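Lay summary. Proteins are chains of building blocks that fold into shapes, and those shapes determine what they do. In this project we predict the shape from the chain. Here is one chain we studied, written as its sequence of building blocks.
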Amino acid sequence: QVHLVESGGGLVQAGGSLRLSCLASGSTFSLKTMAWFSTTTMGWYRQAPGKQRDLVATITSGDNTNYADSVKGRFTISRDNAKNTAYLQMNSLKPEDTAVYYCNVPLNGGAVWLPWGQGTQVTVSS
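And here is the predicted shape, written in a compact code that computers can read:
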């Protein structure tokens, strides 16, 4: 079983930047987890208070990326397969970016592959 651990959130003023990390770790030996991670599309999601959880960015095993319109041009998703880690660089942050950010493996129809982690809180002050 692979577990996802998000980190890097915090409180930042509008216009500031944060870099989130998502570490995939497994109960099996690390090379097997690394093989899984390197072939898997990863996604970053966010959930604001009282709202549904939305997908904001994805990156394929071939490093093809896709973004929600609300973050396009400001957020950059990347991955380091040697570290089993996906990143979300967030620039020009806005108060409406305030949310708990999660990573997961997106599936068709809006489903995800793994149990949700604890997420990381991002708060943008105006």
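What the prediction tells us: Helices lie at 30-38.
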